[in-house]
Amino acid sequence: MADTKPSSDQKKKKEPVPVEKTGDPIVSAIGDFKIYQFWYCMLIFLCKFGTGWHTLAHIFLAAPTPLSCTTANVTDPCSDQCTSTEFDTSVFQTTIVTEWDLTCKKSSLSSLSQSIVMVGIMFGSMVFGMISDRCGRRPAFLGCCFMQLITGLVVCFSPSFWFYCLSRFLVAFATGGTMTTSFVLIMEIIGPKKRELVAILYQIPFNIGHASLAVFAYFIRTWRWFQFSVTIFSVVFVVYICLVPESPRWLFTTGRLDESIKILEMIARRNNVPTETIRGEIEAAYKVVSAAAPVKKGTIIDLFRYPYLRLKTLCMANIWLVVCMVYYGTAQYISKLGGNIFLNNLIAASLGIPGTLLCVVMTKYLGRRITMMITNGISAVGLLSLVFLTHADMRIQVVCATLGLFGASITFPNAYLWGGEVFPTVVRANGLGLCSMVGRGGSLVAPLICDLAHVRAWITPLIFGVFSVSGLLVSFCLPETRGTQLPATFEDSEKRPKKA
């Protein structure tokens, strides 16, 4: 008799707990954010370390390696009189610069290799976004993850510079796809109550990945082993085959109800919520959606076919252009101030972590639009102040530039979050892919803008500051999406968001 009561209590604990019913059939079936969603997000977060490593590895792959002339009575290693040169390998034993002698007239090839990386990310985001909307989130996600692993290892064995550029392009292509598809997978399985928290914290692994590059490079001073070290971690992607299902929201939107219901019931059991009513609720919800308008798979052209969606697409693309240009451009601008390359990179990258955490609080209590306006304003103030302080003390210039970078570090996760909420499910990956592609265009021109500082010191901060102001202004044209239901169809996207 003494054992009867504990057994009864144990049974009560295992009884499913009903979830709050909302206008979103997916959230109503599995809950807003429960134990399954938590571990699912932690699992997807792993792929973001690799995106930070591969996007910014160039800092150390092509690290500055001093070149000197060993010819008697000749000091300029690039002069015609110099017949013998020598690299200073006291800091880095090998880099792509020393491997293929990317010096003097060939020095621009080093920067070109990084521009090729940004082009790869640009097109990868776009192409995998289209594959994701057309063929499903899971195949697109798995495809880009394994492509990143394989091509990353190929880079280690590059026999020539142009082969290195090609393989780095393929790595970047896969990395761009990973950025887009992983974020969409997370956005489509959680509800509005925790959406801003998860979507913003999703950027933390990228920040940590960026910062940890300095640690890798400090202990590994040869570029091939450095590349291997930041790639081999991706072997954990094998677990995604078994643990990452297709997005039930995408299956629902595209009419594959049986598959969607099967996955939702699995998630519901893991979350200890009732499963008996899921099929009836999902089928009823789909009848309502399909009766309003036939559900179809979207394309990138559809982003510009509807008036309000077209406006949102253009404004969101502008915001991405601004944040990528200002973030990467200002980070490079700061790095040119000299000093210890390991420490400089570590500090600059670590700055994104408190910015990301602050973004959680701001978007939760101020909303997406006001946060975007404030953070672009912070960047604009810091960078435009530099226009008048280019001859001031270097510490003052560093503070102003750091303020601009800090504002951009808050803007970046908000751009991901807001973009994921603005676009409807049928073209969400396409929309984010397009915005990411435009943003990478900003990353491409950022180094060129930094080079303009050699002409006039005030030109670079002026351009970055003006673009920050444009990001602030276009925010007025976008709807506030805090606590709203994710739009599923084009018709939903044309309506003003309703509170969930």
Protein model, in words:
By secondary structure, the chain is mostly helical. It has a single domain, classed as MFS general substrate transporter like domains (Growth Hormone, Chain: A). 69% of the residues lie in helices and 1% in strands. It contains 23 helices and 2 strands. Strands 1-2 form a two-stranded antiparallel ribbon. The longest helix has 29 residues. The protein is globular and about 85 Å long. About 1% of the residues have low confidence.
CATH A-level architecture: Up-down Bundle
User: Distance between the terminal alpha carbons, to the nearest Å?
Assistant: 48 Å
β-sheet strand percentage:
under 5%
Cα-atom Rg, whole angstroms? 25 Å
What integer is the average pLDDT?
A: 83
Uncertain segments are: 8-12
**What name goes with the CATH superfamily?**
MFS general substrate transporter like domains
Oligomer: single chain
- The 3D shape can be described as globular
- Main beta-sheet annotation: 2 strands, antiparallel
Compile the SSE list and pairings.
Blueprint: H1 4-14, H2 25-30, H3 35-56, H4 58-61, E1 67-69, E2 85-87, H5 96-100, H6 108-135, H7 137-155, H8 161-187, H9 192-201, H10 204-219, H11 223-231, H12 240-243, H13 248-253, H14 257-270, H15 278-292, H16 307-335, H17 341-350, H18 352-365, H19 368-387, H20 394-422, H21 428-451, H22 459-474, H23 490-494
Antiparallel strand pairs: 1-2
